[in-house]
Fold these 4 entries.
Entry 1:
Amino acid sequence: MGEVDEAFIQAVEHRPKIAVTEAEGIPLINLSILNSNPPSNPSSLQTLVEEIGDACHNWGFFQVINHGVPLERREKLELASRKFFAQSTEEKRKVRRDEVNPLGYYDTEHTKNVRDWKEVFDLTVKNPTVIPASHEAGDNGLKKIVNRWPEYPSELREAFEEYAKEMEKLAYKLLELISLSLGLPANRLSGFFNDHTSFFRLNHYPACPVPHLALGVGRHKDGGALTILAQDDVGGLQVKRKTDGEWIRVKPTPHAYIVNVGDIIQVWSNDRYESVEHRVMVNSEKERFSMPFFLNPDHNVMVEPLEELITKQNPAKYRAYNWGKFFATRKLSNFKKLDVENIQIHHFRIKEESSY
Ligand code: OGA
Ligand code: NI
């Protein structure tokens, strides 16, 4: 990335501390009972559901091990990703995203108007994926977006498609556990994902000469339902601890996945499970790779607190919003060029005084 452009420099209050105190980490949850044969007994399932519920409530983040995703599939895609990013910028820009199709390569993402120290390759999980044609409220048109495939490495497509199937399976298992943990039937949320708009990102964070001034990704919350992240062994992800607002490092656990609740689960659960801020520190010596899978519902889903969770004492905290428009506003609008805040769920929050 050459000389350091001012666009990468974080405001003083958002700069990462290089020495972070080691503290209690996010929960580590063993999913082995889901893959056991014969199926495990109901009491161990109940224990797992409680662990998931506590993790979602107390942290919004957890790691899973014995998740059932074959390691070869993950390694094949990690290798393909490294090969892709090792090419020249000119080569990578042949599959760059544009105004019409938000999928492909780009190296100019901004989070809260500061440029992120990273380059990415975005993919959609359903090919094609149907989303609104624009973020304009009056425009009901839809469009199909399709993946772009680079010439090199040729195995990227197959590696991704195989891996994405595994991510979908794991995501549905996690959704079931989350539903159960909210006291709902296991399949309560599955109907929102028939034609899901999930997407997938290959992230490359190059080594950075100013890791104390820049971030790989600035602080943000994920806007979808659930994120499942594979990170390499370098580390750099930090999660804002709910109890005291401290930034806590997520230490890499080999072969584990990091799972976090997105804004949609926050709304569905009426704030019982909050979507938590996180960010990525960069490193002056090592480059880092990560691969998040963002589970998103169908574009036509109206996101609102689940009616079973609403009572007189706990009235709905959000009014319904259309997921497709929310997504299109983030992905397709030109907010990045304007100095405005991107769309956020707090824009749909019902003010205390107007609640019943
Ligand atoms: C993201 C994200 C974390 C990471 O892409 O939304 O939070 O470790 N990534 O790459
Ligand atoms: Ni994120």
Entry 2:
Amino acid sequence: MSTRELKPLLTRATAPASALLLAQPPKLGIVHIGLGNFHRAHLAVHTAEAVAAKGGDWGIYAYSLRSNEIARALREQDFCYTVVDIHPDSEKSLIPGIHCGASGGPEAHQEVFQHLIDERTRIISLTITESGYCYSTETGGLDNSRREIIEDLRSLTQPQSVIGLLAKALLTRAQTHSAPVTILSCDNLTANGTTTKKVLCEFSQQLDGASAEILIAYLDSKTSFPNSMVDRIVPSTTDRHKALVSERLSIRDEVPVPAEKFSMWVLEDDFIAGRPAWEEAGVLFSNEVEKFETMKLRLLNGSHSLLAYVGALAGKVTVPDARFTPYIESAVRQFMKSEMAPTFAMPAAVNIDRYIEELFSRWSNTTLSDTTARIGSDGSIKLPPRITQTSLWHGERKHQTPMTALILASWVACMAPPRGFEPGEIARAMKDPAREYLTSLSAGGATPAQIIERLFSEGKIFTRELNSLQELKTETTNLLEKIITDGVEATTKALISS
Ligand code: CS2
């Protein structure tokens, strides 16, 4: 199979197991914001496969918000990088030559802006993490109290948020060629397309009169926001992964992406300006996206949070370490069966028992080494969509949700540890945009009851609706106290029903 010259770093790519795609990158069709590992192992791979099968100008220009590091490495490698399946029965390595440009950091703002307004751009895709949408967990719409939103509403000269950047670019499109474009969210939000549209519309309505009118008319008639469910476990790249690529393929890649073999993408077929032939690349087009999304958020992501926080406190560095700890596995199974499964309807095509067993098998991947610290990071943003609706559902029915309370208590123990409690190195490595607020909750020797009361009643992370669940608050407080006095193992074991 031919390949572009992988200059100059990717040389001698001769391993028989590697599949090299696309001799030349296609012309621009997609601008992607959020050039992380997940994008490079998911949308990029599915798009490269679709274009290899059916063609089309769907090259991706990708922009990394925070830094130029990955973009620079990609430019030096002629936009090539390796996606390595880390799975006992797969040696597959793929070089998805689908990127036609990459940039990163605030200094590239103008460049990405030019690509966003380019008439050839027909899809703008996003992996900006839950936090990037600046949405309020209270209203599901725009969080007007976010510093970057306040600044962007004051002036869009140099947008601080992705929402501001999109609004500015879409307004310019509306005022110039007016070509249609699809905005495709690939993040783990409930109804990610609908939420993105809501946030953007609420932002637009607050712009000055003429701009608001033009932008809203454009959003209404020239854009679409399909909902999607994305799924592939993609850890951060370590030196071990770089060594693996160099051993398997005899190439030196500075930015390879390790990923599990499993990859799933379910999409609403609502692309106002066309799309790649993703159905050729295993993507499922469905009218049941919401069901897939809910299933995944609750069973995979919700359980992931339990594995991460209980695992971290128990000293389990990786997901398999946590999942193979019998009391943690039992807690996760009970969480799924009693607290998650009853709250939603599965998509018609998926059997819940098989789905759950497949999850345990995915979490057993010891070579992938996905970490509890990665999953535990950003809990202030990830937890609300994972546990709010289910807690309210059980609250209405007067059911208890001990494992949900355990997630909350172990998260607080990790991120807002009461004075005198040491959560350990793994918890300390977890990052969170609300770290400062969380730390403030336990400042001054606050008791577990005071911490939990403030967390729920101040409505900064969870909706005020959750504050009405007195039972959940009491149970979370009790478990936090027990974690501190008896440790996480005894606390968890005491909750497991025989
Ligand atoms: C994880 C997700 O970061 C997290 O909290 O639950 O990144 C998870 O690995 C992906 O959603 C899998 O598709």
Entry 3:
Amino acid sequence: MTLELYNTLKRTKHIFKPIDPQNVRMYVCGPTVYDYAHIGNARPIIIFDLLFRVLRNYYGPEHITYARNITDVDDKINKRAEEKNISIYQLTEQTIEQFHQDISALNVLRPTVEPKATDHITQMKIMIECLEEKGHAYVAEDHVLFHVPSMENYGKLSGRSIDEMQAGARVEVAPYKKDPMDFVLWKPSKEGEPSWPSPCNINTSGRPGWHIECSAMAAEHLGENFDIHGGGIDLVFPHHENEIAQSTCAHGNADTTEQMANVWMHNGFLQVEGEKMSKSLGNFITIYDTLQDWPGEAVRLTMLQTQYRQPINWTAKGLSESKKQLDKWYSVLKTEETDKQDHDTAICSEVLSALHDDLNTPKAISHLHSLYKHAFEGSKEAAHTLKVSAQLMGLLDQKPEHWFAWKPSRTSLNEAQIAELIIARNAARKNKDFAEADRIRDELIDMGIVLKDGPEGTTWSVS
Ligand code: AMP
Ligand code: ZN
């Protein structure tokens, strides 16, 4: 069975051929650690965790190197530490700890390496000096800038024209830039900002720009040319375009060298009412808050219900449906006690081929559902196959008792929301729309709320 992946760089799906099947290498841009991660940030984490699992299954777990970085030097971090009156180190360490807790509840595996930007400043400086020596970068007012016109085929990932890129970049055009598209590799730090001795004979101390961080960390852990580079679709331009520019220009002749990574993969947006979930729009919900109301596995399944390149509309209804689906699946595993039998069971070939088709998770899930039906009808074999096939997707990995023991956190209950749902249910009952009334009651049950209808009206309690 082959593995096909969509490559943003080629705009088509191709059979994946690793550079070295003994060491398949993948880099994914990780979080900037200044605040709780939101549920949109969880999408690339879950998607590339799934790909990591599929690659481990195909090539063998010891033959995959997965690097997912942590950006722990950034202006947003400085600002937040100042607001909270804590040190930058305290803020980044707390945020990293929270991030790890959040994503482990989503059953995300630890990557092989999780490099931090601040541990790679030397490698960044070496790369910056190399770019300057080769004429791809220049010093201006204590900054080092990448000179975009020095690279002939800049823009091939996003496929945009220079005009479009200029409009899209929305970068402030500083007077010292030779070209409006030039971007920062290194910048001076003000008093109190994190700083290191600068490269390129600059006397003041400074700090790296964001893009160079990933180029340096990817080269350090995966080499100059590696297999897969991933992230959300918003990273195509300028972040990934600039990573390609820096890495190919530093490591060889940009016009003749292989690209930094052979396959570039990007997940679509997680949306709320048609808009990208983002901190700046204020329409976000954190992973942490979501996990107060929903089991992590239901969040993971909801994320996988949509193929990763499509936009996903995030709703409580979607989460509730996933939770019900998992209730069903776990109910047929209840009677299965032996791990040995699981060990002897093969992953369903239809599930595997769906995942090998550019991670077609909706199709894989529909096969899991067929397996569930057979298991429900009494097939023990189907129950085992369901379990091992779902496990490849990071699902059905816990004991059924554990799954059924999960309860929403009481502290997160939103009384106003409950009251609203009770009013909506009563209105539905008055209109004799009993299906809708039952649906609302079930939604409340999923939130851990039981209703009691009495002569005084409807009251609720935590189940
Ligand atoms: P940021 O914190 O904005 O740098 O994002 C970290 C990662 O999350 C990047 O790979 C982004 O592309 C991804 N990301 C951010 N918001 C969303 C969203 N609403 N949907 C999907 N991916 C997102
Ligand atoms: Zn990156």
Entry 4:
Amino acid sequence: MHYTINFPAGQTDYYLNSSYSQLLQVAPIAHSIIIIDENINRFYGHLFTEYRVLIIESGEEVKTWETIRLLAEKLVQFEAHKTSVLIGIGGGVICDITGFLASIYMRGISFAFVPTTLLAMVDASVGGKNGVNVGFSKNMLGTINQPKFILFDTAFLETLPEQEWSNGFAEIIKYACIGNPHLFEQLAHGTPASFQTKPKSLTLLIDTCVQQKNNIVLADEQEKNLRKTLNFGHTAGHAFETLYHLPHGQAVALGMVVALIASEQTLQLEKDVRQKLLLLLQQYDLPYQLKIDVAKVMQTLKHDKKRNNELVDFILLQSIGEAVIVPLAFDAITAALQAFEDESKS
Ligand code: ADP
Ligand code: ZN
């Protein structure tokens, strides 16, 4: 299936339920430069031998300015120019690096993605936000530019480690919570295996998430309002990720629990919503409790981009599928974290 979306920051062709072999048609060898990490090179390097390929190390640690600088030097050596296209083939890290590098190289050249993790397929490759971390502060340098195309091939997921599947499911549960009660039910009736072993269900699941994110990005590409709801679970989540070195999905899962506690405390959300979320998180091998140092989490959280003086924009739920943006005072966030910590002890 193929469709095109016109965003203010660029036009993107979506090749859903596609096959990697289509790359040769959409990305001419002479103009394309592929960026992958060492794992993709190990599993799939043999597929790209006709192209010029840049290989970086894997992991969130390489999402830095230093990597951008080194890759930019390689692009100069390759004599990459205005008509060159950078193609990121990999997970979220590769998408971020490729999109950001392309956006600033020669004041902007085209880029495209072939996402190879569930997380990158449903989230990182979609929406045009690309950036790198500065120290412990996540995505502090970045751009909003849309890729020229995104090619989805679920065959890449055959080599994906279990841990990475649950990372992807955390973002999928997020979409269900903020805007899709039907998806929430569907996930509740499934398991990771029920999607992993049924390519049709998996493709449908990915399509649903891509559509939901695109609708949000179309309404608010620059994240002035609605797009902020995609940060559900990410405010406390990013702090947990940094402080406790957790994988992104696990941190977001825990962040969603904190957000529901805050929703109970500020919006009187009924407790059974949290119960349903906890069940879902367990079903998809995600954590729901963690021993934390509330003061340290608060300290980290205060460095968040979403901070606005003494308030932090928190995404809360009014019900499953209904998210609201609520600026929370530090006291209110501390109270939610304290309750989360107390319940994690018991
Ligand atoms: P994410 O997509 O979760 O944001 P990364 O880009 O860091 O995160 O990818 C997660 C890890 O999975 C990395 O170590 C990456 O090399 C590896 N990886 C990516 N795609 C695949 C795949 N299809 N098969 C096996 N490993 C993969
Ligand atoms: Zn995320």
